Amino acid sequence: MSKRHIRHGKRGKVGHGKLRNYKRKNSERRQERGRGPSNRPVARRQPPQRSTSRPSSARGSSNSQELQSEMSMLESRERSLKLRADLNSVQTDIADIANAFFAVPTALRELNERGFVFTKDIEDDLAIIENQWHSDIKEDVEEALQQALSSIEQVERKSDRQMDRLTSPTQSLINQAQTQLENLDSSIRSAEQSLRAHYRSIKDKVDEIQFDIAEAEQTLNLLNDSKITLRGSEAPILAADARWERDGEDEGPLGHLYLTDQRILFEQKEKVAEKKILFITTESKTVQKVWIDEELRHLKTIDHEEERRGMLNMKRREILSFVLQGQADTSRLKFQLVDQQASEWAEEVKMVLSGETAKDRFDYDPETDSVTYTFPTECPNCLASVPPQPAGVHIFQCGFCNSTIQADAS
Q: What is the CATH number that goes with domain 236-360?
């Protein structure tokens, strides 16, 4: 499993429904382009021929109200089980896995075109699981599915025969029918569990890849709506809803925290009350302002913690904090992350600084990993100072004359 998947495996929310949107959009793409397998079930059993002579529970008025009530419940449960007897949930999983091998490469190309370039680990993982699926798993799953459907059909026929005997329901017949329905339920559950065991690891990895894609799309969408301008050589990595705890204030500005391969940025974006009457806001305005713009090379220490507050310490706060060197505009930064783990952000920042994240670029070539890149100390055009750059950065844009400076490889 890739570094990115290890990093995100336990995260809770994607935020803003991105994973659902990803699946919906890619379903629409497949329909428009006619590419990839459809979501049709991969197998279909022939349902047992049913008797049409069974009276509804409304008939047999001479029976007791209690028997009629039990009969109605049996018929309701039977309908529910028949909806599951085709194992559609399993067949949908199988179709989703097959569809991912067509949809994910398209989604990655679109991310690269939009400026998100750290997708090589996703491409590598997809290639591995696609090979596993076609060489080791797919055929076994489909064969096991056919066998399971045949077995369930036999149990379903027995259930049908027992239900058809309820022309004049008695407690004994109802009990026998209940037993047959329980057998059918048990057969369906057992088949679902057994089949999922065949492909669970592949499905989990596909879900992780889709999570990463959804997170990357969310980062790009937030950046597009921000006032942040990326440099020519700069690439986004992560974004999160966050609160900047300015000067120790728990209720500081609310907005978005961004991590690129060169900077940490925070943009406030929230509605702020302008007028209040008896603590009720009567007028408000949306504030959007970039407050933090710091170079990663200025970071001295990176810390994270989980704060517990409130009654019985039930309220959890994910805190990410930085201590910066003297060249930075501020000495300390502290953020409260929303729906993301501070430990994962701290790990990602450290990976960027170490140069590990640069290896995830879609165009990364491991054969050039040993190449050393050196920038001039001064801009060749205006002689402005060129500061040291983070690992993996090969292009620098001068902040004074806007010239693009290419590092020398050796």
A: 2.30.29.30
